[in-house]
Design brief:
By secondary structure, the chain is an alpha+beta fold. It has four helices and six strands. Helix 1 (about 5-15) packs across helix 3. The protein is globular, with a radius of gyration of 13 Å.
């Protein structure tokens, strides 16, 4: 099961990612845009996710994904770290969120990063 240190290590391994404390929590950014946070007690990770996909994820795997009340109006979802299968799943989730925030020059330089991988 991945933990907060795994989130930090994997997020910072993504191209041009920086860590910044905001709202008293670690946030991870690419090109100045936030793509992940480690909220509250660091037992979950919040990531970008289009609302349509987010709703499907929450319905399909409510033990793994949920939407915090204050994030309901935004395209973010939370994943419980204890419910993730392994570090590969964590990397896929973070890379997908990174892709949504990354500037075009990085997407061009890393065309496959954040796209679904075969399992």
């Amino acid at each position: 099961m991945p933990d907060a240190e795994d989130v930090r290590r994997v997020a910072l391994s993504l191209p041009d990612t920086t860590e910044k404390i905001a709202w008293s929590m670690p946030t991870f950014r690419v090109g100045g845009k936030m793509f992940a946070t480690l909220p509250e007690d660091e037992t979950s990770v919040a990531v970008r996710c289009p609302k349509e996909e987010r709703d499907e994820l929450v319905l399909a795997e409510p033990e793994k994904f949920w939407v915090a009340d204050h994030e309901a109006g935004f395209a973010w979802v939370r994943a419980r770290l204890a419910a993730l299968e392994d570090e590969t799943e964590l990397r896929d989730i973070l890379a997908d969120s990174w892709r949504q925030a990354a500037p075009p020059r990085l997407l061009e330089a890393h065309p496959g990063l954040g796209l679904p991988t075969a399992r």
